From TrEMBL:
A Gene Ontology BP annotation from the UniProt entry: neurotransmitter transport
GO terms under cellular component: plasma membrane
Annotated organism of origin: Accipiter nisus (Eurasian sparrowhawk)
InterPro entries in the cross-refs: Na/ntran_symport, Na/ntran_symport_glycine_GLY1, SNS_sf
UniProt subcellular location: Cell membrane
Chief location: membrane
Superkingdom in the source lineage: Eukaryota
Topology of the protein relative to the lipid bilayer: Multi-pass membrane protein
A family per Pfam: SNF
Name of protein: Transporter
Amino acid sequence: MADKCSEGLLNGAVPGERGKQDKSVKRGNWGNQIEFVLTSVGYAVGLGNVWRFPYLCYRNGGGAFMFPYFIMLVFCGIPLFFMELSFGQFASQGCLGVWRVSPMFKGVGYGMMVVSTYIGIYYNVVICIAFYYFFVSMTRVLPWTYCSNTWNTPDCAGVLDGNLSSRTAFNLTRLLNATQKRTSPSEEYWRRYVLDLSDDIGNLGEVRLPLLGCLGVSWVVVFLCLIKGVKSSGKVVYFTATFPYVVLTILFVRGITLDGALTGIMYYLTPQWDKILDAKVWGDAASQIFYSLGCAWGGLITMASYNKFHNNCYRDSIIISITNCATSVYAGFVIFSILGFMANHLGVDVSKVADHGPGLAFVAYPEALTLLPISPLWSILFFFMLILLGLGTQFCLLETLVTAIVDEVANEWIIRRKTFVTLGVAIAGFLLGVPLTTQAGIYWLLLMDNYAASFSLVVISCIMCVAIMYIYGHRNYFKDIEMMLGFPPPLFFQICWRFISPAIIFVSIATMGHGVMGGGGKEPTWTPHSPTLGRRVLGCRRAAEMGQSRVTGRAQSRLAAPHRLILPVPPQFILVFTVIQYRPISYNDYVYPTWAISIGFLMALSSVICIPIYAIYKVCRSEGDTLLEVGSPGLGPLVHVPPGAACKAVPHPTRAVSTSQWLCAGSTRGAPHLQAPLGAAGMLGEAGAGEHGGY
């Protein structure tokens, strides 16, 4: 009987199999597996899928871009996604608690918390702007339709203004004013009314009270949805993760019925196969995959930690990753069908109206919506979709911070008061976001977006791979996954985790110093893309003037050379292209001052510096003769043991350590359970948390 129990334990379980009591009573679990999948989809599918990918695809060769994009998905996205899900699920701990597997690298978890904090602050500001546009769309005429408002300038030229009653008149006016700066009413509404933009990042000006109110609404919504942790957010995602697809479908059906929609879609999909040889295209594909899936933010580990121990996270990682990428492709049809219609209406090329980032969401696309009948309805649907996409990501960002705090303290008092921890983090996030609602707020928002979560994510992901594969040991980790899932990770994933990432790490380190310090700001190339929002924020007309990416001189030779060594590789590959394409950021005609860029680099370093600082602290405070002894204690999953269960000590199946694990049989369904003894030297032994799963 013991042999059968042991065999069943080592073989794991198929999700849905009756008899497996592998829940975490104190921390809680997802109500069912659908809640986890929907939450992870909502986390991965964010604003970047709608306003960044379609433009990247169009600019990097149309349909030809799909080839490197899906190559990067297979060789980079899914393996890293699977690693983080399995890491969190096996430990049943947040991004801090999991590093009891190798305490010296707990700084990686702190780095993830810093990244999630930065993103959570400015991401909710973007959501609050979407809330603002959603509210002002509830009118008969959209406020950015005409140029007759008090905030408009003489340079404003709207396509529906009375003096432009026909396309011929508009084209004539456009030709006569070709040498003048023309701005659209949607661009002036965005810059002069919504933002009331100041002239410098240091000139904060006054707080924009409408945005501040919407920011409060955003944080209240996030808090209420997370008031009971995953038990409440797991129910909310049934709507927030699925309804955006309903809106996308409605906008898609409406878009493809418009004149010029096919032209826009052809611009989106027509392959330019010569760009396949451009290393920059592969770099954009890799960075989009990496940042879109949310790797190294800590959210994947946190969400997976609430899974049942034997959940098939391998299957989930494939489903969620493919869903994320398919959503990006689908959103491209929605965006470019409307932009094609707008270009057709204006009598210009699609490239003249194509844009991405906030420039697409709050300037170009809203202007296109004014051309549709019942334009307020389509505007309400569009911005409601943006709100839901943003909230899905924001839920996980906040839960990542709360879970890390609660798991780190890990006592009854804080577990029972987790709601107050959530409230405290939400209030702190609101207060830290207030400066971003000032007249200079957009400058600070883009600064955070560009630097706070860019190359630091790649560094964190690299170190995580090395720590798991080479400090804890790949054989141990593979056997842990086999214990959890019933089968070892496929050979493909083993190769990616063990060899590809570590090999590229050395290339990344060697390239990073040359790229960042080598005068990158003098190279007139496309501004590098940020993980969530996209780099440029330009009106649709200025996007037409600046949208063509040109690489000249020294920069061209540097970007062209790597294409001979194009390989589908994990995130270190992204760091190479992030660095060699670097140039200081700008917003329209405004160039950020040196002191602001220095603050940006400090934000980027603040997450990475956690890793060596904590490692030094741990080495100094721990016993052991070697770094391996300090950094790699015993390991074992801790799964809840039902009352009255009969336990038998058995050797740890994945590692020879001084402690024993306990094989228990005695639940009402006769299922085996696994638990480390209280006070054991395993990862949770020092806390004695017998009801937590974990290393």
